[in-house]
Amino acid sequence: MRFLFLNQYGPPDRAPTAQLLGEVADGLRAHGHIVDFVSDAADYLASQGAGRRLVREFIALLRLAWKGLRRERPAVVLSGSSPPCLAVVAGVIAWWHGARSVHWAMDLYPELAVALGEFREGWLSRVLGEFQRAAYRGCERVVVLDEDMAATLRGYGVESEIVQPWVLEGRSIPSVQSSPRTLHAGLPWRWIYSGNLGRAHEWRTLLEAQAILERRGIEAELVFQGGGGSWGAAREHAAALGLKGCRFRPYVPERELVATLLESDCLVASQVASARGLLWPSKLALLLAMPRPMLWVGARNGACWRLVEGKDRSACFEPGDAEALAEWICGRVSSGYALDVVTEFGGGDGDGLARLVSLLTGEGVGAEFHGGASACCS
Asked: Does residue 63 carry a pLDDT above 50?
């Protein structure tokens, strides 16, 4: 069977969506299928924070549509959700080729753009939303990343399958070990936020908590590693707070990522509350699998909150709750780091890749692929 994959970023780009789609393609090829990629040849890291985003993404949609219409006829068109409204374009391409359309919703637009203030709510957002929801209903399957996203789509009358992202191949996770930092006196307790820092990610609470720690004389170091649309604003706020123990450093090469995370005493992921049910942080799968405690800052009792809450020595806080977050860190520091060894890893989905390949091929899923979308909230 021939598959056509559509996404703004494709392998070997470092974008999480490109890497995940690349591994799905490898899984399908291992089963004897043919996979054809159509991407916009964009560079994920270079495009972060770039201006004129709406224009850039509209042009990307046009390019993807033109390329997709000209490709050899596939049996299945699988679309990601970048650029926004790609499901609409994918539906047209699938109709043109007489193929089935499957949408893998990494985020939900235009709702996310409206929630983050990137796009004004009005007649245009409503029209785009109706087009997008019609595209969902026209898909043979819609795949989402967590229960919150499934609930959002269910409100539109769209049932979906849940497949949580997995740890990418090649990211070797070591067995449980204590941090070498705990063996050396005089090192500050380090917590790290690694990856894209965009509008959907909560960073003020982290900086405010670091400010509280410094006022209390707690030796803690907050590290931001990566880049993104909110990088500049976060740096400015850190400077305004007069933080001495806050570091900003660029993305590290992929082969060095796990090692840099292991050099820290705690791993951080965050999301603004308004993004609940519209986005799943791509970094979360790796952080859940690492032998380090985690901090989650996001909407209370959301799907991501529950995942992190199930991980050993980890904690969750709502945006703005900097005092409670700082108090938790004080407890870790006063323990002499003795609790910073994780032995239970919570709710990661190690079978996500195999499940998605099965959903695409109809093998062993419990529902025929040709029968349309069905609910599977696991």
From this structure: yes
Domains and CATH numbers, the chain: 2-166+350-371 (3.40.50.2000), 180-334 (3.40.50.2000)
Please give the structure tokens belonging to residue 85: 């409204």
Give dist(CA 47, CA 109) in Å, integer. 19
The per-residue pLDDT for 102 is: 97
CA distance 22 to 27: 9
Cα–Cα distance measured from residue 10 to residue 181, given in angstroms and rounded to the nearest whole number: 37
The alpha carbon of 27 is separated from its chain's Cα centroid by a whole number of angstroms, namely 21
- Asked if residue 100 lies in contact with residue 76, where contact means CB atoms within 8 angstroms, the answer is yes
Tell me the pLDDT tens digit for each residue of 178-211: 454 554 456 889 999 999 999 999 999 999 999 9
Higher pLDDT pick, 168 / 315: 315
Placement of tokens 């800052």 in the chain: 297
The span from the first CA to the last CA of the chain, in angstroms, equals 28
- What are the tens digits of pLDDT across the range 116-130? 998 889 999 999 999
Length of the chain: 378
Return the half-sphere exposure (C-beta side, CA atoms, 13 A cut-off) of residue 242.
3
Instruction: Give the residue-averaged pLDDT of 251-264.
Output: 90
* Residue 369: partners with Cβ closer than 8 Å, 6 or more residues away: 100, 140, 141, 359, 360, 361, 362
DSSP bridge partners of 224: 193, 248
Binned at pLDDT 50, 70 and 90, residue 365 comes out as very low
Return the structure tokens found at 130: 């109706």
- Cβ 220 vs Cβ 190: under 8 Å: yes
